[in-house]
Amino acid sequence: MRWGMAIDLRRCVGCQTCTIACKQEHSLPAGTQWRFVADCEVGVYPGVRRIFLPMQCMHCAEPPCVPVCPTGASRRRADGIVWVEYDACVGCGYCAVACPYHARHLVHEADGYFAAPTPAERATAQPTRHDVMTKCTFCKERVDAGRAAGLAPGVDADATPMCAVACIAGAIVFGDLDDPTSRVRALIDGTNAAPLAPECGTGPSVYYVTGDGPPPDPEPRAWKPADVACPVPRSARSRSRHGFDRPPVQDPVLAWLRALGRDR
């Protein structure tokens, strides 16, 4: 068993609903986003096009963040989920430097959005996540609790990562990459799905469908996409206060997208 995702870029509309759903699910402080949607331009004029690229931890088969951790806080489970043991993390940032996908976020302070914490912020505060490295966990608590209740991750909403549940376009498919009958495996095998920056040799568990043409009709899901009460403002990628964050121009993801545009 190896949990993974396939993200259909033909469906993604850049609404950032997955970003907000993740932030709500994990009570992330202001300025911290475990996932975001990059607004990219690919190709060469006049054959230029716009593409929305959801980004997150790739839960690599060979995660470079794990061996560099001096305390062993950065770990990989047998089912492929890469996570951080907060009690062992010292916030050194080595894993963030090693990650080629910029998927690690050091939380210095639990900053709120107002001068004083709101009742909701006080109720969902996570004191164990101060001065430690944080990241996407594939909502492992939801996955584990769902499986314990007999639910199927990727099929039942209560056992599926919140980003996939909330996606209004059905662009995010989660499931077992080792199960040939799973939706995620079928989408990967039936399209040109590929991971980002495969030359890094990390074996990502997140694949992207980049093929041209209309996307296929999604299979019926057991839940309805979450309603969006109001438009979510498009947020820029968070890089503030982290000296180990690389400039965007050196981002391997953007290099991959530029290569994708040249090949078409």
Quick summary of this structure?
With 264 residues, the chain is of the alpha+beta class. It has seven helices and nine strands, in the order βαββββαβαβααβαβα.
Strand order of the largest sheet: 8-1-9
CATH fold name = Alpha-Beta Plaits
Report the CATH C-level class: Alpha Beta
Number of domains: 1
Distance between the amino and carboxyl termini:
35 Å
- CATH architecture tag: 2-Layer Sandwich
Summarize the main sheet. 3 strands, mixed
How would you describe this protein?
- The structure is a single chain.
- This protein has 264 residues and is of the alpha+beta class.
- It has one domain: Alpha-Beta Plaits.
- It has seven helices and nine strands.
- The chain has a three-stranded mixed sheet.
- β2 and β3 (47-55) form a beta hairpin.
- The longest helix has 11 residues, at 252-262.
- The radius of gyration is 18 Å and the shape is globular.
- It starts with a strand and ends with a helix.
- 37% of the residues are buried.
Structure characteristics:
9 strands; two-stranded antiparallel sheet; alpha+beta; Alpha-Beta Plaits; globular; single chain; 19% helix; 3-stranded mixed β-sheet; 264 residues
Summarize the topology.
Blueprint (H helix, E strand, L loop, with lengths): L2 E6 L8 H9 L10 E9 L2 E9 L18 E3 L5 E3 L9 H5 L6 E3 L11 H5 L8 E3 L5 H9 L13 H5 L5 E5 L6 H7 L16 E4 L42 H11 L2
Parallel strand pairs: 1-9
Antiparallel strand pairs: 1-8, 2-3, 4-5, 6-7
